[in-house]
Amino acid sequence: EVFLPEETRAAAPVDFLQELPSYQSALRRRAAAGGSQERRAAPPGAAGLRAAEARRPEQEGGEVAARPAREYPLSIAEKRRLRDGQQTNTKYLSGWKQWKRTSSKSLKKVLNEVKELSSYLELWRHDIHSIEGKFGTGIQSYFSFLRFLVLLNFIIFILMFSFVTLPSIISKYGVFNSSFVKIPPKNIEPHCTHYKPSGNKGLVYFYTYLKDLLSGTGFLEVTSLFYGYYTIDAAWISMLRYNLPLAYLLATFAYLALSLIWIIKRSVEGFKQNLVHAEDQFQSYCNKVFAGWDFCITDPNAARLKHRSLQYELQTDLEEERLKQKIADRTMKEKLRIYSLRIFINIIVIAVLSGCFYSIYRATVFSQENSNVSIRHDIRRDSVANLLVQYLPSIVITLANFIAPQIFSFLIRFEDYSPAFEIRLTLLRCVFVRLANIGVLLFSLWSQISYCATDECKACGYNYELYPCWESEVGQEMYKLMIFDFIIILAVVLFVDFPRKLLVTHCSCKPVQWCGLQEFGISDNVLEIIYGQTICWIGTFFSPLLPAIATIKYFIIFYIKKISLIHTRKPAARPIRASSSNFFFLVVLLIGLVLAFIPLGISIAHIPSSKACGPFRSFNTSWAVVPDTIREFPTGLQQVLYGVASEAFAVPFFMVICLIMFYFIALAGAHKRVVEQLREQLVMVSFDPLFCTSKV
């Protein structure tokens, strides 16, 4: 251990770096190292016990800290003597301190037992451990991420059901002597309030129910699944008035805030692990050679795969070093050629994206204009054709999500990037395609909703003829996207992976064996479920029970992917590290959440709410319920809230936040410099053993 004597530390000048917590922690570690050397020199018995007792930290007021003996860096014999000394000292404490120490130990023991018990109740605990043992931590991180989304959607469902759906159902059916109030909208044209849901009446064929189940129309349109069901201004439960419009809006903000906080919390944990692995190439090489093995692996095939992955990582490091040398040796002519080629390829990428966006826009417009057109001669064909027309945007989006990444993966080979940067750039392009496609779909819907060519339409603020309850229409589109995404995932496993597995197993043809089994790509599967989660975040405002469908969907997908991994696919030959993959998954999920804020913000604050359905039919926009509620508060509270929302409060608050941010940035930079100094000392110790003795 490297440490400084007490005299040297006392004589050293105190500067800013020495005031940092990390520097103080280093001093305590050095003092502990010095104490350990003194302990080795001390004879056993009373002298060793006194040394151990002297090293115990003391709390304020002279009270000895009640740390267990096992937490001290001592030998077994000294820990026993320390424990006996602690028990002896306890007799001389006052009754209050004895009770405090006993209750603290009991509480800590209970918490540990509860934590241990909760680990056994963890969802899919055994399955995920089994996957980790057979395929390593990289694939295990995908299934852990899937479990996180199941829990997140379940909590969002509980939130929306408790504060939105349950009060509506209770008030409509008169449970607990409850009732509801419908206030006719004021200063609204009568034609804007006309809305007749397309519910099925009379004798209905079975395939009509199936079509309604897949498209969200018919009998589903009038259920609590969609926005139009909640046409209530207030609910009276016993003697309490429940403001449903305000609860609907606050529940929306709550699930978005909950998702944001939870993702940031998990991202910070992954970021800490990612920083540990953000070392230079020499340290990376040492870590791969001496500490790269995954001891969770028990399956022989997975062990061979881990060998190949370590070999691939070492080859990738060598290839990146070769590319760095090649980039350094490039002439001006070669630089001009490669930059021109990259510009040309990026133009092609932009053209592909533009084609995808335009196709989605045209498909959405065509679907919205022709979804109710029927073929008069054949009713059965009419239902199938109408279903295809309704699902046309979802089909086009799925095709774009499949074709565009294939083109990007082909073009990236000609851009002459390093292997690691190739993977990151391709993933970023794929993320942009998947999330931007949802944005284009919503933009296409809004362009149709906001299009008004007559004065009657302008009086309503939206296209009331085609979209009398436009929020339910948007909810149906999000519902169809989620259902179709699940159908595609299931169809790929049943009609692509299983037949391919049978061909590879029972057919000895060279082309079939050359193709082999499909790899289980972690990044592609993660982007798949992040795309579905973004749909859920956007659609929950328009379909409050959509998180329940997402929970069931991801629950089934877990077992589908598990069966696919074990029986029909093979692990990727280029696996990614669990720590970096977890952080990457959460960052992409955070991007999806931030992008979900944009359409929701526009829908809540900008687009006029439907005047024929929903809890906000009496307001111009959904956000208008907030100032309307504030006007019911006492005058003093109104002035406080208006002051907080004013520029006089916002500007100083923003400046204080900036100062705090700059402080933490400076603190982080100082910590980084301390870490670099400690690393330099470690390097000096490794190269010059005399450096250690010179400090003693």
Automatic annotation (TrEMBL):
<protein>
    <recommendedName>
        <fullName>Transmembrane channel-like protein</fullName>
    </recommendedName>
</protein>
<dbReference type="Pfam" id="PF07810">
    <property type="entry name" value="TMC"/>
</dbReference>
<dbReference type="InterPro" id="IPR038900">
    <property type="entry name" value="TMC"/>
</dbReference>
<feature type="transmembrane region" description="Helical">
    <location>
        <begin position="391"/>
        <end position="414"/>
    </location>
</feature>
<dbReference type="GO" id="GO:0008381">
    <property type="term" value="F:mechanosensitive monoatomic ion channel activity"/>
</dbReference>
<feature type="transmembrane region" description="Helical">
    <location>
        <begin position="426"/>
        <end position="446"/>
    </location>
</feature>
<dbReference type="GO" id="GO:0005886">
    <property type="term" value="C:plasma membrane"/>
</dbReference>
<dbReference type="InterPro" id="IPR012496">
    <property type="entry name" value="TMC_dom"/>
</dbReference>
<feature type="transmembrane region" description="Helical">
    <location>
        <begin position="339"/>
        <end position="361"/>
    </location>
</feature>
<feature type="transmembrane region" description="Helical">
    <location>
        <begin position="148"/>
        <end position="170"/>
    </location>
</feature>
<feature type="transmembrane region" description="Helical">
    <location>
        <begin position="649"/>
        <end position="670"/>
    </location>
</feature>
<feature type="transmembrane region" description="Helical">
    <location>
        <begin position="478"/>
        <end position="496"/>
    </location>
</feature>
<keyword id="KW-0472">Membrane</keyword>
<feature type="region of interest" description="Disordered">
    <location>
        <begin position="27"/>
        <end position="66"/>
    </location>
</feature>
<keyword id="KW-0812">Transmembrane</keyword>
<feature type="domain" description="TMC">
    <location>
        <begin position="469"/>
        <end position="579"/>
    </location>
</feature>
<comment type="similarity">
    <text>Belongs to the TMC family.</text>
</comment>
<feature type="transmembrane region" description="Helical">
    <location>
        <begin position="246"/>
        <end position="264"/>
    </location>
</feature>
<feature type="transmembrane region" description="Helical">
    <location>
        <begin position="583"/>
        <end position="607"/>
    </location>
</feature>
<feature type="compositionally biased region" description="Low complexity">
    <location>
        <begin position="42"/>
        <end position="51"/>
    </location>
</feature>
<keyword id="KW-1133">Transmembrane helix</keyword>
